[in-house]
Design goal:
The complex is a heterodimer of chains A (about 450) and B (about 375). Chain A has about 450 residues and is mainly beta. Chain A is about 5% helix and about 55% strand. Among the domains of chain A are: about 5-120, Immunoglobulin-like (Sandwich); about 345-450, Immunoglobulin-like (Sandwich). Chain B has helices at about 1-10, 25; strands spanning about 10-15, 35-40, 50-60, 60-70, 80-85, 90-95, 105-110, 115-125, 130-140, 145-155, 160-165, 175-180, 180-195, 195-205, 220-225, 240-250, 255-265, 270-280, 280-300, 305-320, 325-330, 335-340, 345-350, 355-360, 365-379. The radius of gyration of chain B is 32 Å and the shape is elongated. The chains are: A mainly beta (about 450), B mainly beta (about 375).
Chain lengths: ~450, ~375
């Protein structure tokens, strides 16, 4: 079943609106269609080219879009040739008819005219996801990127050029809501209210979506060329990246399609473990760190945010173990990436308060305490129980704004992050333990006055 | 009979000769229904739409009663005016009366002789208005846009207008018919090429300081700045508020949508700022490196009553793009304050807001360091 935006061309006998729906001249089919699909918003820019047969003089062209999710305020018709002789005078949304528009065209010539009809629609979406496979020593990762395009628009798109936009677009109205309005621009004095989301057709589509998931993805849904030959061409435009999928795709309503985006054989990665009580509690979090640059065999384009599932090759037969997954955000070119794979127990960070003392008391004229220092000595024990070398980052936050810190015994150094945070960074070999100690002095009351 | 007439036209002007009948009787005696001639729909006031319609009355010598009534439409009765156009010296409006429980009024018009008289009736009609929308298509380099604006005429007044002159406060008028419940989109401004400035803006009150602390990307809002001047091929009139959609040529004969925004009314000479989307290739990490009380004053009990606060804020700006970027950075410092040192020039927007314009080279970095004292903070 197809729900196609219909274009009908009418020649008007006397140019009056009331007489518009007479003398059907032609019903041109879609010659080609281009879809530019966004993922930061439910938004797709569709462009169709069609050939219209125009008569010299006034022509009314009817466009209807029942059962689709097209935003009627976005409709535009542009003649691709003879633009100076074809004047699109108005777009009328006639009374008491839903999902129908009439273009009033004054043509200086007659004959076949190629036109482009563009509009915004909702219901098409895409997302990126990734599969990573670590080498047994966890120094490198094979990274495969995919995109999955989903058509839930109510419209079958056959042999469409599919383009994807990576970026955060600013929109003020949801296209799905614009598509469901009774009147394209509402009535005067009525402010757009949230429309009920479900109508009967949507629920039917949802069933179809679920079915496509169950049937699995990666099936060639009647596409012309085999999937593995497709490449995705990536280019920057303004603040966005445009991914153009080679060739043409057919995505029927309710179906989704997985397409490979990139495949890098060996990205050098660092096993990074973090400990920060205020952020993660009393546990160590595992990160996989690399950089989106040439040194890491990446860096050609930003990497769109998505879910990465990480596996590891465990033996010579390439058996896999599942290491964890991480939802990551958009990664610009040259940006460092830290993928949070969750809490682990095989790396241990144990801060121990070894000593606490107070000193340098100050008293006011009534003999009450109004200033003192608190001195705490912490012993930090860091243990790598794994077979592979790791890096550990420990952040310590202090409640007081006035403090002094001294390290003892170890080669570790701290880096000041902000007014009350420092960071220690340690590299541990396989099965290595390290211990260091620091003494923190905080100044309270009048003791802080001149620090 | 009158009911039948209402079905045809909801706004009616009827006329009858004044013989010796009372108003109530006379209004049943419909003599002539003068046809509506030229009609103007004036949309220069965004809140109220003024309709002006011209009609020709056939007046008898002496006193004439003209009945103006409406049904199913909302007219402000106090706004109804009548202007005598052809013989204003010989035709006089004597009084206006309103019949009970009806949407109607009766003009008593005195005429020196029997003649055809052109009049203009004007009134404020509800539920007919206009919206303005804009469409801009930027070039690939983002230095200019092709700028046009549409008028959206919405008629839900209850009245059909077969043919009317539609006027805005500027631009050419349209000759359009518009029926009840009809919406029409008409192109009314085609400015051609308009230069733009692309600005990235980071505001310390609106944006997250440390993007590492959050799981989502912290986008830096990107604006296109369009100046409403003749140099920009605009500048003839104020640009009304409305919805703007911005597209960009993609270099392959097609376009992409960059974003949309609701733009404010922009008077001549001023800038229109269009928020199109967020950049994720520009990253700002702002941190407070020093935050401490100094110059502490205490009362006799030792309680702190007055102090200054020394603060040092650093903002690291990383540009991952392969083009230079101009970042407008807005910083807020509450209370009274003195800047001790700052490595960039700033403009004081008001007592507590300062603005920087920082150029960040392609794939480069910049760092703003502000060292200031907030003075005389009471405890």
């Amino acid at each position: 079943m197809k729900w196609i935006p219909l274009v009908m061309c009418f020649v008007l006998v006397s140019g009056g609106i009331c007489e518009a729906k007479v003398d059907l001249v032609s019903l041109p089919s879609r010659d080609s269609v281009q879809l530019t699909i966004y993922n930061s918003a439910d938004l797709t820019l569709a462009k169709e080219s069609r050939s219209l047969t125009l008569k010299e003089g006034f022509n009314d062209l009817q466009f209807s879009w029942a059962n689709t999710l097209i935003d009627p305020t976005s409709l535009e018709l542009v003649p691709l040739t003879n633009a100076d002789r074809i004047d699109v005078q108005a777009l009328t949304y006639p009374p008491r008819v839903k999902n129908l528009g009439l273009w009033n065209i004054d043509s200086g010539l007659s004959g076949q005219i190629p036109v482009e009809i563009s509009y915004l629609t909702s219901g098409l979406s895409w997302r990126a996801f990734y599969l990573g496979t670590l080498t047994p020593d966890e120094k490198e990762m094979r990274l495969k990127g995919y995109v999955r395009v989903l058509n839930n628009s109510g419209e079958d798109y056959e042999n469409a050029q599919v383009r994807l936009i990576v970026g955060k677009v600013h929109i003020i109205d949801q296209i799905a809501q614009l598509a469901q309005r009774q009147y394209p621009y509402e009535r005067p004095g009525i402010y757009p209210a949230a429309q009920p989301e479900v109508h009967s057709k949507r629920s039917r589509q949802d069933v179809r979506v679920m079915k496509s998931v169950m049937m699995g993805e990666g099936i060639a849904f009647g596409s012309v060329a085999p999937m593995e030959t497709k490449e995705i061409i990536k280019e920057g435009l303004s603040e966005y990246f445009l991914y153009t999928i080679e060739g043409r795709e057919t995505i029927l309503n309710g179906w989704s399609k997985r397409l490979p985006s990139f495949d890098v054989a060996s990205v050098p990665v660092v096993n990074l473990y973090k400990y920060e009580e205020e952020r993660y509690g009393y546990q160590v979090i595992r990160f996989l760190s690399f950089k989106n640059d040439e040194d890491h065999l990446l860096g050609e384009t930003p990497i769109p945010g998505g879910l990465l599932k990480v596996f590891r090759n465990v033996d010579a037969e390439n058996h896999l173990s599942y290491e964890g997954q991480s939802e990551f955000k958009y990664i610009p070119i040259d940006e460092d990436v830290e993928l949070n794979l969750g809490a682990v127990q095989n790396i241990v960070v144990e801060p121990k308060l070894m000593n606490l003392k107070t000193e340098n008391f100050m008293f006011d004229r009534h003999g009450n305490i109004n200033g003192w220092d608190e001195v705490r000595t912490y012993k930090m024990e860091v243990k790598n129980t794994r077979q592979v070398p790791v890096e550990v980052e420990i952040k310590r936050n202090f409640n007081a704004l006035k403090w002094d810190i001294h390290n003892e015994g170890a080669e570790v150094k701290y880096e000041k992050i902000d007014a009350n945070t420092v960071k220690y960074k340690l590299a541990l070999q396989s099965k290595e333990n390290k211990t260091f100690q620091y003494t923190l002095r905080t100044f309270h009351g009048r003791r802080g006055d001149h620090k | 009979m009158k009911k039948n007439m209402y079905l045809k036209s909801v706004i009616m002007l009827s006329m009858f000769c004044f013989l010796s009948l009372s108003v109530a009787e006379a209004r049943i005696k419909l003599v002539a229904l003068p046809k509506r001639a030229d009609t103007i729909i004036r949309l220069d006031n965004p809140q109220f739409t003024l309709i002006e319609e011209e009609r020709v009355l056939t007046l008898q010598q002496g006193l004439n009663k003209v009945d103006f009534s409406w049904n199913g439409v909302s007219i402000d009765p106090d706004s109804i005016r009548i202007d005598i156009l052809s013989h204003s010296d010989q035709v006089t409006l004597l009084n206006v009366s309103y019949p009970p429980n009806e949407n109607a009024l009766v003009w008593e018009i005195s005429s020196a002789g029997a003649r055809e008289e052109k009049i203009r009736v004007s009134y404020l009609l509800s539920n007919i208005d206009r919206l303005i929308t804009y469409k801009s298509v930027a070039d690939k380099a983002e230095t200019q846009v092709n700028f046009k604006s549409h008028l959206i005429l919405r008629n839900f007044s209850g009245e059909d207008f077969a043919n009317a002159k539609v006027l805005l406060d500027y631009g050419e008028s349209f000759e359009e018919g518009i029926r009840h419940e009809e919406t029409k989109q008409l192109l009314f401004l085609k400015a051609g090429t308009v230069p733009i400035e692309k600005v990235w803006q980071w505001d310390s009150k609106k944006q997250i300081w440390d993007p590492e602390e959050v799981d989502q990307n912290v986008g830096i809002p990107v604006h296109y700045r369009i100046t409403n001047t003749t140099d920009s091929n605009l500048g003839q009139n104020a640009l009304w508020n409305g919805k703007m959609r911005v597209f960009q040529l993609d270099g392959h004969g097609s376009t992409i949508l960059l974003g949309e925004d609701a733009v404010d009314l922009t008077p001549v000479g001023e800038d229109m700022e269009v928020y199109i989307g967020d950049s994720r290739d520009l990253v700002v990490t702002q941190r407070k490196m020093v935050d401490k009380q100094t110059n502490i004053r205490r009362n006799t009990s030792g309680r702190v009553v007055l102090y200054d606060n020394e603060e040092q804020v650093t903002a690291k700006i990383e540009n991952f793009k392969d083009t230079n970027a101009k970042l407008k950075m807005v910083q807020h410092i509450p209370g009274e304050w003195d800047m001790h040192s700052c490595n960039f020039e700033y403009k004081k927007e008001n007592a507590n807001t300062i603005e920087f314009e920082i150029d960040v080279p392609a794939q480069g970095k910049a760092e703003l360091v502000m060292h200031y004292f907030r003075r005389n903070i009471r405890n």
